[in-house]
Amino acid sequence: MLQCDRFRGAMSFHTPFAAACADFMARATDLPAASFAVDAPPRREMGDFAVGCFAAAKAQGKNPAVVAAEIVAKFAPTDLLASATAAGPFVNFQLQRGPVFAYCVERAAAGTLLPQPGADQTICIDYSSPNISKHLAFHHIRSTVIGHALAQIFRGLGYRVIGINHLGDWGTTHGMLIAAFKKWGAPEPIDVTALNALYVRFRDEMKTNPDLENEGRAWFKKLEDGDAEARALWQKFRDVSWAEFETVYAMLGIKFDEIRGESAYEPDMPRVMAELRDKGMVTESQGAQVVELDGEKTPMLLVTKDGTTLYATRDIAAAQYRWNTYHFARSLYVVDRGQALHFRQLWKALAKAGYAWSSKCEHVPFGLVRIGGKKTSTRGGNVVLLKDVFNEASDEIAERIQASVQNNDRTSEVTDIAGTAQKVGIGAVMFANLMSQREKDVDFDWEKVMATDGDSGVYLQYAHARCASILRKAGSDGHANADLSKLTQPGEWALARRILDYGDMAVRAGNNCEPHVICHYLLELAGDFSRFYTAGNGDATLRVLCEDGHTRAARLALTEATKTVLAHGMALLGLQAVEAV
RNA sequence: GUGCCCAUAGCUCAGUUGGAUAGAGCAACUGCCUUCUAAGCAGUAGGUCGCAGGUUCGAUUCCUGCUGGGCACGCCA
Asked: CA A390 → C1' B57, Å?
C-alpha cells in the first residue's frame, strides 16, 4: 500500500547510521556534525540517507553541487557506510546492510526500539475529561484516543506519564441537573440516559421559563456551599456516570493514573482567589470578578455575579496542583480547538501570577467531529454513542473473519473470534481517528468508520497476523543467531531500512504531539512487509519458509523483528495486535 | 466586527524547522490465488498544490493581501 517516503524531513540522528553520515560530512567540510540534517532521499534507489550541501556551500562561498562532488571525493567505505554519491547538491549514502539488519533484529529482540529522551521527566496529560451525567459520545473519541496515544508514546520514550481524567463534574450545569431531578425525578435505577434526558428537558423548558435558570443556579450555589442534599444527589449522578464511562474505557484498554474532576479543586477556590487578589490581579466587572490580560479583548472570568466559581478558576487550581504534585516537564491538555481562547487566557493568567512553569503548559487542540455536516450536540440530539460504534465495528469484523475463511477456503487460525473481532474492530475505529492531523475536523460516517481495506488499522492487523502465522508455521525452526548475510533481496532491505526509522518517528510524534506520524509509519512498514510477503507468492524461493535453512532462519528473524515493531507501534496508538485474523 | 484555524487528484488525506520528478487510500479501469492468509500484490488513469503578489539560488512549505469554509469571542464546560 503506502510506498512513498513521506517522512523525508525526519532526521535519524539517534541511529549510529545517520550519525555516521553526519560525522563524515563534518570531517569532509570541517563544519560541526550538527549542522547537517540527515534525510531520506525522495526515492529508495537513490540511497539510504541524504545530506544537502547548501549550508556548507554557503560557508565556503561555492556552488552546492561542486561542494557535494568534493565531499564525495573524500569518501572511503566504513563499517557502517558503503558508499557516497553526489546527486546535484546532495550527498546520498548507501549503508552497509549487514549491520543494519543486525541492528534491527537485535533492537527488536531486546525491546530497545525507542530512544529514552524522557528519563527522569514527568509529563501530565489531561485527556478524555468528559462531563458527568452525559454519555460518552462519538466526539469524545478524539480527546480520549489522541490523549491515550500520546500517553503511550511518551511512556515508550521513557517519560513518567500521568494520564489525568479531569471530569467535568462541577459547575452550573450540575445545579441545573439537580433542579431538574427535584422537579421531575427519574426512574430507579438511574442511568446516564435518564440523567441526560433530564438535562435536555431542563434546557428546553428554560427557553420558555426563565425562572428555571435561576433555580439551577441556586442549586449549584447550594452544591458549592456544601448543602447535604445537593451533595448527595451530585455524588449519585457522578457514580452512575463513572460506572458507564469505565465500561467504555475498558473496551479501549485505557486506565487513567488520576481521576480527579473539577470538583476536587472546589476546596482550593478561596485560596486561589485570595492569592490572585494579593497579587492585585482581580478586578470587578459587571458584578463578576475577572482578571484583565494583556492583548485580550475580554478578561478571564473567575467568579460569577452569583459568587460561584467558573472553570477557569478551577483550571488555575488544577494547574497548580499538577505542578506542585508532579513538577512536570510538560503539562498537556488534549482539548478541542474551540477552547483555544480559554487556554490562551489561562496560560497568560498563570504567567501574570508569576508561575514560571506556565510555559510548560500546552493546549493540544484537535478539530471537531461533525455528524451530517453539523457539530454534534447532546442537546441537538445528533449524537452517536461511542460504545455503539465499537460494538458495531466489532460485529462487522466478526463477519469479515467468517467471510474471509469461506472465500479463501482455508481453516481459520483465529482461536477467539469475538475477542479478535473486538480488538480489530475497536482498533480500526481508533486508528481512523488518529490517522489524520489532530487539527483537522472530521466527519462521522458509518462507512468510513467501518472501512476494512486500504490504509486502515485492519491493514496493520493483517500484516501482523501474517507475521504471526509464518512464525507459527516455522514451529521449532529456530532463528536465533541467524546468518543475516543471507538477506540479499530488495524487499528484505526495504523492511530493515523502514524499521530503522521507527525510533525517530516516535520521537517526532512525541515532540509535536502528533500520533498520526506513527499511523503513517506503520502503514508503510505494513506495506513493506506485504510486498516482501507477496514476492513469495509466485516464487517459492522468496518465501520466508523456503527450502534453504540458513535463508529461512534469516528471514524468520526479519519477520520476527517486523512483527515486534508492528505490535509495538500499534501499542503506542492504543491498539492491541492480534495473532490471527 | 475582531481573533484563531483550514484550503493539495472526483472523494478522504500525507507531504512539519524552504530542497531532488508533489505521494497514498477510496472510487474507476487492467492483471495476479496449483495461496508461507487475495482484509493482499502489481499496473493504468487522475494535479495551474484556492487566487494574486513578495522574500529566496530554490516556495505546496515563509510573508502580505484577497476569496471560500470552520471555530471562538463574560458570568456553560
From this structure: 54
Q: What is the CA radius of gyration of chain A?
A: 28
Ordered by where they begin, the domains of chain A are 16-95 (3.30.1360.70), 386-572 (1.10.730.10)
pLDDT digits (tens, 9 = 90+) for A259-289: 999 999 999 999 999 999 999 999 999 999 9
Give every CB contact of residue A519 below 8 A, 6+ residues apart in sequence.
Answer: A431, A434, A435, A573
Confidence of residue A381 (pLDDT cuts 50, 70, 90): low
DSSP, collapsed to helix, strand or coil, labels residue A258 as: strand
Return chain A residues 155..194 having CB < 7 Å to nucleic acid strand B: 168, 170-173
Supply the pLDDT for residue A6. 36
Type and span of the H or E element at A25 = helix A16-29
In Å, the largest CA–CA distance within chain A is 86
Specify the residue for cell string 487556554. Answer: A343
Look up the protein residue whose alpha carbon has the minimum distance to the C1' of B70.
A441
Q: Residue A566 CA to B43 C1' — how many Å? A: 28
Q: Is the CB of A6 under 7 A from strand B?
A: yes
pLDDT tens digits, A48-84: 999 999 888 888 888 889 999 999 999 999 999 999 9
ipTM of the complex in this document: 0.96
| Closest to A528 measured CA to CA, from A477, A484, A569, A573 | A569
DSSP calls for A333-402: EEEEGGGHHHHHHHHHHHHHTT-GGGGGEEEEEEPPEEETTEE--TTTT---BHHHHHHHHHHHHHHHHH
- Cβ(A230)–Cβ(A178) under 8 Å? yes
Query: What is the DSSP code (8-state) at residue A114?
Result: S
Nucleotides of B under 7 A from a protein CB: 2-6, 12-17, 19-27, 32-33, 35-42, 57-58, 70-77
